[in-house]
Design goal:
This protein has about 110 residues and is mainly α. Helices cover about 65% and strands about 10% of the residues. The protein has a two-stranded antiparallel sheet.
C-alpha cells in the first residue's frame, strides 16, 4: 500500500525524524536515541517515511543510513504555497487598514 506524504508528515514523531535527518544521514539506532520510544517504533516510522519516498535508505558497510529526499519535500512546499499566498494577501490588507487608521488618527 502506497501511503500519502501528508499522512506521513501528520505524525509528530515522523516530522521530528525528518528534522533530524535533514542535516545529515543517520542510522536507525542514532535516530532512536533522540526519542523516548523503542527502536522498533522508530523503524516503523522510518518504513512509513520510506514508503512515502520522503526518506531514502543507503547501505554503507553493515549500516543503513536514512537521509531526506528533498524533491518529495518540495511537493509539500508546493501545496503549502497556496496558503502562504492567501495569508500574505490578508496580512497586506491588514497592513493597509492599520496604515489608514494610523493616518486618520493624525
Amino acid at each position: 500500500m502506497r501511503r500519502d506524504i501528508f499522512q506521513a508528515v501528520a505524525d509528530p514523531t515522523r516530522r521530528a525524524i525528518i528534522v533530524l535527518i535533514a542535516l545529515q544521514a543517520m542510522t536507525p539506532n542514532a535516530i532512536a536515541e533522540n526519542f523516548n520510544t523503542t527502536r522498533q517504533a522508530v523503524s516503523k516510522h522510518l518504513r512509513i517515511l520510506t514508503e512515502c519516498e520522503l526518506v531514502k535508505q543507503e547501505q554503507k558497510g553493515r549500516e543503513i543510513y536514512y537521509s531526506l529526499e528533498i524533491d518529495k519535500m518540495k511537493e509539500i512546499d508546493k501545496w503549502i504555497e497556496q496558503f502562504r499566498k492567501i495569508w500574505e494577501t490578508r496580512f497586506n490588507q491588514l497592513d493597509d487598514v492599520l496604515a489608514t487608521l494610523k493616518k486618520n488618527e493624525k
